[in-house]
Design goal:
Blueprint (H helix, E strand, L loop, with lengths): L17 H15 L8 E6 L1 H15 L12 E7 L6 H4 L10
Parallel strand pairs: 1-2
Helix pairs in contact: 1-2
Protein name: Lysophospholipase
Organism: Platanthera guangdongensis
InterPro entries: AB_hydrolase_fold
Length: about 100
Amino acid sequence: MSIGFDVGDLSGDGPDDVEGMDASASHVAKLLSTEPADIKLGVGGFSMGAATALYSGTCSVLGRYGNGNPYEVNLSAVVGLSGWLPSSRHVLYLPQISTYE
């Protein structure tokens, strides 16, 4: 199985491959869903792997993929090296989320 997404342009105005990012984040979630419930889960990556990890972390915080489907994995840690946050222009306009309620 091939996972990945298109990177047309890294500028803030470049197109987003939300469908490809959702597929990558879904693959990560599927891998993590087999882990025991009593452990903390984390993801990390380098370059495009970092982008996938950061996008997965964003989906985890929001509780949904970019297409609106529920993201059911609770991530405790995300590490990204030499990467970027795909769809960042959309994330910046989301309401503030507080985990301290």
